[in-house]
Carbonic anhydrase (Sporormia fimetaria CBS 119925), 214 residues
Amino acid sequence: MATAMDALDRIVEGNRIYAQKTAAKDPNAFLELSKGQAPEILWIGCADSRIPETTICHSRPGELFVHRNIANCVHADDMNAASVVEYAVAHLKVKRIVVCGHSKCGGAIASLGDADLGTTLNTWLHPARELRRRHKAELDALPDDDVRALRLAELNVHQSIDVLRQHPAVKKAVGDRGLTVHGLIYDIGAGQLRLLEDAAARGKGNGLWSPNRH
């Protein structure tokens, strides 16, 4: 219990330091943020604690609208993701959507096999495990599990993009105002982002958005 409280104390103290330093640098910073937000990017990333998007992108509060989950998956029947996407695209009018996977991803590593992780995680990672099965020959030809997990993370980003492109709000924004969707991979060991090839022409993954499902 003491350890947990120590961790909580650290983040509260960290916030105090952040607020003081930010206000000292720009006395109007928080006032401006309180007036509203106009981010240009929706960032869909992994919940991994090593990948704080604002930090790794050297961005400021207000610049990224964020949704994070285990292994940065976008599922067609996930109302959490659906609501974030619709709000960001239809109401905040973001200009770009980014799906960011990463190296050493626990979800990708777990999806290389079928170990029982518990009902919730088994269900959540099922699409990634199906993706592994569909690409078995390609993945089996790779030299080790680290490389296989990274490739599966890339495939998972592409699959999430395929699903996103079928979201009604995304399809409308692409046609009406040129919204674009992009895939990134973050290399934890190097601290660098890599842009993936465009996925627009790739075949669609399983479980596309359907108005009847929302």
Remarks:
- Strands lie at 41-46, 64-69, 96-102, 180-187, 192-195.
